[in-house]
Amino acid sequence: MIKSLKKVTLLSLIAMMALTGCTSDSKPAAESKPEEAEFKVSTEPVTLKFYVNVTRLSPPEYNKFFVEPLQKKYPHITLEKLEGDLEKLILAGETPDLILSDNDWHMPLVALDLPADLTDLVKKSKLDLGKFVPETVQAIRNLDPNGKELQGIPFSRNTGVLFYNKDIFDKFGVPYPKDGMLWSDVLELSRKLTRKEEGVQYIGFDPRFPDHMISQYSQPFVDPKTNKALIDIPLYHKILEVFRANYELPGVVDGKSYAYATGTFIKEKRLAMMPEWASKIISDLLQAEEDGQAPNWDMVTNPTFDDQVGKGRHALTDMLVITKGSKHKEQAMQVIDLLTSSEIQMLVSKYSRITVLNDPEIIKAFGTENPSLKTKNTAAIFKYPPALTPTPNKYDKEVQTLIRDMRQPIALEKKDINTVLRETQEAADKKIADLMKQQK
Questions:
Q1: What's the CA gap between 285 and 295, in Å, rounded?
Q2: What's this model's pTM, rounded to 2 decimal places?
Q3: Could you give the CA distance from residue 415 to residue 243 in angstroms, rounded to a whole number?
Q4: Are strands 200-202 and 195-197 parallel, antiparallel or unpaired?
Q5: CA 37, CA 25: separation in Å to the nearest integer?
Q6: Are 222 and 399 a contacting pair, CB within 8 Å?
Q7: Is residue 266 classed exposed, middle or buried when 0-12, 13-18 and 19+ CB atoms within 10 A define those classes?
Q8: Spatial separation of the C-alpha atoms in residues 205 and 260, rounded to whole Å
Q9: Where are the beta strands (DSSP E) in 289-408?
Q10: How many CB atoms lie within 10 A of CB 381?
Q11: Which of 152-156, 321-325, 368-372 has the lowest mean pLDDT?
């Protein structure tokens, strides 16, 4: 994972190396020939360096979705999967040609001046952007503040759902969650399920992160005009009220413990409900089932506030990025064209990744190669359309970290929400100002 926004001198060096790489044999633009505008790709053997930034891609998925289809259609193209810290790889002259990342973690790639504009390659290759779920393309277009560049192509996507442990509900005789619940409904269930039984403290609900809960509102982290954080606002007050109400239930805060999440849900099996990104947790649950350790789980639609009923979290798109310094952009585009084809996207869907194609048959095939999903409410994944993704800011990750840190003073110190918002706003503004000084 990329470390956020180091000193500009380091970034400048990395950016220069990413662009130049081993391109001493590249021709000046003036020597380009007219026919190079056509999408004629060499079939000479070529190796593309491939890096997975933050998106989960298991070894079986890598082989099934990437390696095997590529060997079949383009045997002259080989992927070399790079491992390790991206900045260190670039400094060592190992700049990737192709990166799998997502739109939430795109700005660190921009800070390294890596993503190429794919607009011309899309035209030359005749890639049909109309085949994608519109919000996935829009989420990528939002990455350019000017709305002109297309710095990636969708590969798979993610959406929020509420996971729950059926055994805990059965144990305490509480009805299962339903699609379409409000956060207030979840809190009511949490009140009934947070209890200690036979020495085990069961937690009814972990809200996870404030930035997850605000996602449906398409709320940016930073004001692009002022470079001030957007934290001390009514929306976050509304959201932190849900956190506060849950923390006040006896047993939710246990000593210094207040955030439980995946380990408590899957391994310890004492967390009843957890809202999370679907693909991430389903992958973990399926692995746990193979190991014989999974809870008796299911899922429903992501809860909402009453003014956001029927709306999902913002569009989170796993995207394929071609780097500016790549000498093999056309071959990388062939890889992208293959990975976004109906054939491969059907494979992606069958093996429980959410397709980016707006194709009912491919959507319907979701999870069919995983028998354990046949009894699950997988329709919850697709029921709500994604909210629009706000235009990102290069200081988003620093602000997001501080937003998540707001949970601790509310849970452990019982601080007033207004105080927490004010102090976090001040800390975020100071952090941004310090970063801006470093970059001058």
A1: 8
A2: 0.87
A3: 12
A4: antiparallel
A5: 20
A6: yes
A7: buried
A8: 9
A9: 297-301, 316-322, 354-355
A10: 25
A11: 368-372
- Residue 24 burial by CB count (10 A; 0-12/13-18/19+): exposed, middle or buried? exposed
218 within 8 A of 312, measured Cβ to Cβ: no
Q: Please name the residue that has the structure tokens 């029927």.
A: 310
| Amino acid identity for residue 393 in this structure | N
Write phi, then psi, for 33 (nearest 5 degrees).
Answer: -100, 150
Nearest-CA neighbor of 334 among 348, 345, 320? Answer: 320
Asked if 180 contacts 311 with a C-beta cutoff of 8 angstroms, the reply is no
CA–CA dist 140, 150 (Å, integer): 7
The 8-class DSSP code of residue 210 comes to H
Count how many residues are written for the chain.
Answer: 440
CA dist 384 and 122 (Å) reads: 29
> Is a pLDDT exceeding 60 seen at residue 26?
no
Check pLDDT > 80 for residue 22: no
pLDDT tens digit sequence for 214-238:
999 999 999 999 999 999 999 999 9
Alpha-carbon distance of 206 to 152, in angstroms, equals 33
DSSP state of 437: H
d(CA 432, CA 430): 5
- Residue with structure tokens 């011309």? 120
Q: Are strands 153-158 and 316-322 parallel, antiparallel or unpaired?
A: antiparallel
346 close to 340: Cβ distance less than 8 angstroms: no
Distance CA 342, CA 344 (A): 6
- The H-or-E segment that residue 235 falls in is helix 234-247
Cβ–Cβ < 8 Å for 48, 81? no
Provide the 10 A C-beta neighbour count for residue 376: 16
> Which of 189, 298, 307, 162 has its CA nearest to residue 246?
189
Closest CA to 331 of 124, 74, 129: 74
Closest CA to 311 of 238, 217, 236: 217
Give the pair of three-digit tokens for residue 358. Answer: 């707006």
Q: What is the dihedral of CA 181, 186, 187, 193, to 10 degrees?
A: 150
pLDDT for position 37: 52
Mean pLDDT for the chain overall: 90
Say if residues 344 and 320 touch (Cβ distance below 8 Å).
Answer: no
Identify the burial level of 347 via C-beta atoms within 10 angstroms of its C-beta, where 0-12 means exposed, 13-18 middle and 19 or more buried.
Answer: buried
Helix (H) or strand (E) holding 283: helix 278-290
CB 242, CB 273: distance < 8 Å: no
| Residues 318 and 154: beta-carbon distance below 8 Å | yes
pLDDT band at 35 (very low <50, low <70, confident <90, very high): very low
